[in-house]
Design goal:
With about 525 residues, the protein is an alpha/beta fold. It folds into 2 domains: about 170 residues, 2-Layer Sandwich (Ribosomal Protein S5, domain 2); about 240 residues, P-loop containing nucleotide triphosphate hydrolases (Rossmann fold), CATH 3.40.50.300. It is built from 22 helices and 18 strands. The strands form 6 sheets. It has a 5-stranded parallel beta sheet with strand order 11-14-17-10-18. Strands 1-2-4-3 form a 4-stranded mixed beta sheet. The chain has a 3-stranded parallel beta sheet with strand order 5-8-9, with helices on both faces. It starts with 6 loop residues before the first strand and ends with a helix.
Amino acid sequence: MKVGLAMVSKIRSLGLRGILGYEVSVECSLSNGLPAFDIVGLPDAAVKEARERVRAAVKNCGLKFPISRITVNLAPADTKKAGTVYDLPVLLGILVSAGLIEPIADDYAFFGELSLGGQVRGVTGALPMALAAQRAGIRHLFVPADNAAEASYASEIAVYPVEHITQLLAHLRGAELIAPAAPREPEPEYPKTLDFVEVKGQENVKRALEVAAAGGHNILLVGPPGAGKSMLSKRLPTILPDMTREEMLQCTEIYSVMGLTSRENPLVVTRPFRSPHHTVSATAMAGGTSNPKPGEISLAHNGVLFLDELPEFSADVLESLRQPLEDGQVTISRAAASTTYPCRFMLVCAMNPCRCGWYGHPSGRCTCSPNAVRRYHDRLSGPLLDRIDMHIHVPALEYSELRADTTAEPSEAIRKRVNRARLIQRRRYQDTGVQCNAQIGPKHLSEFCRLDTAGEKLMKNAYDRLGLTARSHDRILRVARTIADLAGSAAITRTHLAEAIQYRTYSFSGKILDLNRTNEK
């Protein structure tokens, strides 16, 4: 077909801004003049290189590439376009403008990377873009076969897996239709090698971790080397509550943008557990780079961020956690863009009581001076510690506990109790925006964490003796609410409150403060 002057086609596609998808219109114009191929609309280097991939794919599929002046505009033109997702719609736009295929229906959209031979390769961010297509009213979405399982979790749209350009063209002509991908029903799987049944002793720590999991509370474990702090923390995911479908999609959006999903595992079905090394940078923790990407705290969204050897992390990394712990989101501002990522995570930390690890141990083997211990603790700021709900002492195991021939409770039994407590919380906070007790705001605290006369008296004595802040006072009430939920109690009793206070009484001197007098008052 002879190319006429300024023949324009429009193909709907999708792009990514942070972890959110948005619609992109790929406009293609073929006109007379010297042969040229230009892509405009703030494309990055990867988008510009689509010219060579598209040209080679068209020729290697047996089609004639038009010898014309080709201009491709990616609208909105004032938003920077990045990645290889536009290869497929650019190719289709050229073929439509050249009259090689019929115009494409308006409720169709396409994205995907092309190989030189015409294969359609997977891209990152398939689920966010599929959800954006759903919001834009698109009904038919054509994606790389590697991304189809992930994109199919966007309801209300038909997702078609495309392996090769010739397969897609046959479908568009009606010669050989592609069957839409069907989403698999997710089934959470927990590692068989990590289970609380393997943990000897430490019943008080297991109970504290159960309370933390049930309410989503931040927790700090302090104890000597070999006491089991890391071992217990790594088994925490096996007792975390099952994820809701909304939480699965939220996590998958983040992991998809980072390229951490696959054809075999398209959906995040268990709560994330992120354990960065203490040499991690503040940018890697919070997110950033010139093109802002999610950091470790966002990858831990709806899950756990575990910081082992807490004082060994740099001060700027630890202080970068303070605002996200309060707000549940982090805003990354750069010259090119400002992006907000969700980061509602459960912070779990482990540390030794001193540099050598044995301060306060009955054996007296600690070699640290009082000043050295103080300097070690001074690496942690008061505001950060105040944001950690539970401070738990993890004692060294006695020989009799280590050699005891007893069977501990398995993770599955603990997880059932945690799930029951979370179900109570979801029903209580329905339509409030609160997901668990750790997220109760000041507005709802007095309504859902009301104390009786005995509880008020105990809370006042603890507040005065422990020197609590208003923030730590509120966090104790939230923990008490979780303990009551685990007990199936509608009201917070004095017993529930006393246990919550005990989880806040570690003195960072290797000993536990004595609250017996407080409890007797």
